[in-house]
Amino acid sequence: MAGISLNEDPNHYLMSRRHNDLTAEELMEWVDQYADTQVNELILNVNAMRAGYDSGVWESFWEGYDPEGGSDQPFFAAVAPEARERQRQWVHRGWQLHRDGLDRYAIWIDRCRERGISPWVTMRMNDVHSVDNEGDPMHSTFWQQNPQFRRAPYKFDDWVDKAFDYGRKEVRDYHFRLIEEAAERYDFDGLELDWMRFGFHFRPGFEEEGIAILTEFTADVRKLLDSWEAKRGHRIKLSARVPSRPQTARGLGMDAVEWARRGLIDMLVITPFWATIETDMPVELWKQLLHGTDVELAAGLEVLVRAYPESALRQMNTLETVRGAASSLLSRGADRIYLFNYMDSDTAMADLENYPALLREAGSLETMSGKTRRHIVTYSDTWAPGEASGALLPAACGPGRYRSFRLHAGPKPDGGDVFVLLGAAPASEGTAGAGRENATRGTADRENAGADATGFAPGAGDKGSAGFGDVLLNGHACVYEGVADIAKPRPEGPVHRFRVPAGAAHAGFNLIEARPDAPQTIIWVELAVEFR
Amino acid sequence: MAGISLNEDPNHYLMSRRHNDLTAEELMEWVDQYADTQVNELILNVNAMRAGYDSGVWESFWEGYDPEGGSDQPFFAAVAPEARERQRQWVHRGWQLHRDGLDRYAIWIDRCRERGISPWVTMRMNDVHSVDNEGDPMHSTFWQQNPQFRRAPYKFDDWVDKAFDYGRKEVRDYHFRLIEEAAERYDFDGLELDWMRFGFHFRPGFEEEGIAILTEFTADVRKLLDSWEAKRGHRIKLSARVPSRPQTARGLGMDAVEWARRGLIDMLVITPFWATIETDMPVELWKQLLHGTDVELAAGLEVLVRAYPESALRQMNTLETVRGAASSLLSRGADRIYLFNYMDSDTAMADLENYPALLREAGSLETMSGKTRRHIVTYSDTWAPGEASGALLPAACGPGRYRSFRLHAGPKPDGGDVFVLLGAAPASEGTAGAGRENATRGTADRENAGADATGFAPGAGDKGSAGFGDVLLNGHACVYEGVADIAKPRPEGPVHRFRVPAGAAHAGFNLIEARPDAPQTIIWVELAVEFR
């Protein structure tokens, strides 16, 4: 079985348990929910810009916090008044654990071993949450006082413009010190360098120069772990989180293939950044690149799911959409499913009642077999500076020409009912005006279908297929079944369902083709495999 | 020295020499122009849908042609009347060579050896030129009479919809027979399988299933060549032309990495299809994939150069733009520069007077060093069915935010003057209306600059930079120098020149950033390195 690696972020636990003092027992209970599941590794995140433990080399989240000072104390002065008390509460929880001598990471690591889970520590290598607010108490004074160490001091279009420049030795040393300390303080099975929080580590235009720098940094960390292996008496693995596509990873200074070939890493996590789960990561390509090494490839799943970059929706994945992504990625050769932001509350899947099932299914094709799964077209949310980016959706379709969408559906969906689900943008002035006849038909359709106040309508054109015209899967005609009432995640507006004829769907990549009768902008493409 | 491979298509020679009977001497002279240049291999193309020689297994271009019948004979009935005589002339030239017992490929191969050039033969594996005209005499009767062997019989949006489906054994056997015949007939140093004419070989949705099929086909060809090596007494190499990016190649059924690792191929040509030279092919990624094999990687250059897919321009490359692409691709690790459609006339570079220089320069960084070169942003013109495609241009820029463009500039441009060249689309109603103040300033600029009848203007906004605002190279501010009068290729409308400060440009990837003052759609991005 491939299994699951699960990432726990540095303050979710404090935030979700902020209202009551915590005990060692409660800390252990957090681990216990992952015991006897498919979770092989708990990947415990010890930092953002500050440390989640009482560090001697970095500030902790509660350094400077006065537990008696309330939410109006100077520590929170830069925080918006309405957000202060909530922030104070989780900072206080970190402070309370420290006061009570409870090192949550040490306790979690011990408990993991007792319950048969491999404990890992992960470090965010360049976290820039909330850097629009320079005075936020989440930030380190090192970052605040050294704007000259930032990667793009001449602009601020995005948080990552204020990220550290790893081209600076001071920056590398600053981060290496926390790694040294964590390695001394915690007896973990493995250390992950999380280069995807937030993914941009060099001055714009200096990413290629950065390749050697990050490789050398990784080698230094490997050397450090080597020295600890003797003292701990066990192997200490090293992993890295990098962008989903090798050319983008390299374009951001991360030559993960070189790390693997030099024997520096044991596991590699490929992942989008945050905006959406990436359902079509090139696993086969990575496996070819890692061929001849012992490196395990973990497919990283984020919790959000969006169909296209401009989408205003912020929907979370569900058990069914994770099954879709995980069964695809595992069948493409991934050695592990890695869950990021799939925590036990707050930042979590939409149908949290299915969390126990997720932990017991998503790590194996066998346990997902015969269960309903949803394969959704999403996109890659991370690109190197100046790299050409692309996304399948939204897809503006001219009438009478086929438009194609590729979806990898994992194993052959034997015994399931297979459906193509499509959504289109509401007809705009531009599309409705493409032909008087079509516009008229569109109006009639809208009336028939009783379009709601959002303005979304089944679309202009052939009533027999809601304007999508011929819809094919692998060349086989699919049959329109009307508007489908599907659970979230779902697109803006109605979803139209087309039944795929038996046997037409196959393992691996399937191709959906649609030939709208009138101009359409498709914004949702899904292949659903339903078992009843 | 890396050197050059040069592809000669199946009818360019006949077309360009169509007016007079040809002799063996003239055939040899064609080879001689490539002797004592950097051309290592002449890659002689023997077919499209018909063979360029008197084949016993396929029709030749002149089979069915009556040399006495003029252009109104039945053979040309399906050709547009105004095109008949020209087509008759080149078909006649093929017929004449055959009549006179001149097998051009045999003569060329012998002459190549005499002049120190390695002779190769290349086969187009799925040529679909002009298939909108089913009766064109270029087509084979096998193709005409077997529509059931085509990959997408249900549609015709593009020529490739009518390409053969290699999922059919009949199709594979039909092509293999020509390979067998060519291997018996010609004593070549190497055979190239040109999977990029036209790149689509399977039913839509069956590309992944095709991977094993093409790998087996390649293995069969390798076995055939093995058997001929003993008879010829020398090594016979095998090569393949595939799309520029590994995941797209695989998405089209071409697992070139597997071919390399199984020892089936000796050379791999990565290339765009046709619409433009691709200046940013991921050479490093391919080299990592080919690591541990002996396969040489050739970077394929097409002759057209376009900045974005929708561009209506059809400009050819020049010595300077080839220097840009070739010096970049060689410095990224390509083992060879492969020229496709760079022939000695007709289908040729724009400045054909520089052809001799091209053949003596483009295969080596040394010979291009210290010479003016142009690095132009282009795009990838080939994507697998349903794959997300992307292009850097056109780039619609909102005001006040940086937009980034990556260009790999090859070796550090020491001693040269470096310029960023930018072009923008003419202000449309949409962009001009983005703000009254900007619109007014835009009008003033247009008057000052004396915009020509095309409607192109320097752009709205800051007069000091033609509306492009701050223009940076690797974070260094560049200085606006006005509209540049550059040679073709150039964009629609004016080109604006920005001087890069000394030392700001470096080897490898350089990043251009622009922050327009008003909405702009950038359609041309170039880094020019000029030596005087």
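The CA atoms of residues 76 and 84 of chain A lie 6 Å apart.
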